[in-house]
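Long-time lurker. I teach an intro course on protein structure, and each term I like to show students one example going from raw sequence to a predicted 3D structure in C-alpha cell notation. This year I'd like something fresh instead of my usual example. Would anyone be willing to generate the C-alpha cells for the chain below so I can use it in lecture? Attribution to the forum is fine with me.
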Amino acid sequence: MHSQLVESLSYAQRERLAYIDFRLYFMGEIGRPDLAGRFGVAPAGATRDLALYREIAPQNIEFDGSSKIYRIARGFVPIFEHAPQRVLSSISWGGGGLSGELQSMLPCESPTVLGNPRLDVLAPICRAIHAKRPVAIRYHSMSSGESERVIVPFALVDTGVRLHIRAFDRKSGEFRDFFVTRIEAPKLLNEEPKANERPDNDIQWTRIVELDLVPHPRLSCPEIIRMDYGMQEGSIRIRVRAAIAGYMLLRWSVDASPDHSLQGDEYRLWLKDYLALYGVKNAVLAPGYAPHGKDSINE
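-- Reply from a regular --
Happy to contribute to a lecture. Here you go:
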C-alpha cells in the first residue's frame, strides 16, 4: 500500500519524502528547517510534506512537541530503498543543494584527494561522451610525452584514486585509458565515430571476468575478513569488466599471486584463481600478478 501511494505522487514530492525517510533512518530526527534548507520549500510546504509522510507511514515518525521536531519511532521501517553508496556520500558530503560549501551531516574524514580534474577539461569530455563525438586533445603521456591526438571517449572510470576515460585512440588505433588530469585543450569534433571506434569493439571493455576473492591464507582470523567484506559462503565473487579488473585489485590490495606469497599487512584478500586474469591487459596493476607480456594499459 505504501508503494502504491508513493508512486502516485510527483517526483518532487517523492524526493522530499525520501529525504524525510533518510533523515529519520540515519539521523533519528527531522525538522521543518531541514526540509526548507534542503529543498527551498516554505515552512507551510515542509509541514505538509511531514504530515503526508506521517499519513503514509505513521509507525515511522512521532512528533516531539517540546522541541518541535519529528523523531524516529520504535516501529520504523524505511519506505524507500537507500543505496549504501548514496547514503555514505550524503552523510560525508551533505545532502546536496546549491550551496557552494560542502558540509558533512556527521563527523566524517576521508583520505585527501591529491589531484582533481579541471572542470573546464572534464566538462567537454563529458559532453563528447554524451554526444558520442570524437574530441581533439593535447595529451601528456608517461611513455611518449606531449602529443596532439583525437580520441573517441565513451565512459568515465573512477578507480578510487583518480579519474580516467575509456576511449578509442586514433593515434595508436587502440582502445586505451586516458587520465583526465593529463588532458589539455579538448575540442569536440562535429563528426560521427567510425564503426571500429565504437565501444562494442573494445574487447577489454565488453569482456566480463569473474573474480573470486577469499581471505588471505596467511591470516589467522579469516572470519573477521569475511565479516569485513560481507562474504557469502566464504568468498566474494565479483563480475567486472576486464578493463577495470586491474584497477580494482590494486585499489583493494588484493594479492593476485598464484601462491598467495605477498606478506604485507595491507593484503587481506587473495585472488583464488589468478588465471581469471588471463588476457586482461591491466592485470599488470594487480599486486603480485606475473605479467605474460608487455601490454600497454594506458597512456
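Some talking points for your students: Residues 119-198 form a domain with the SH3 type barrels. fold (CATH 2.30.30). Residues 96-101 have pLDDT under 50 and may be disordered.
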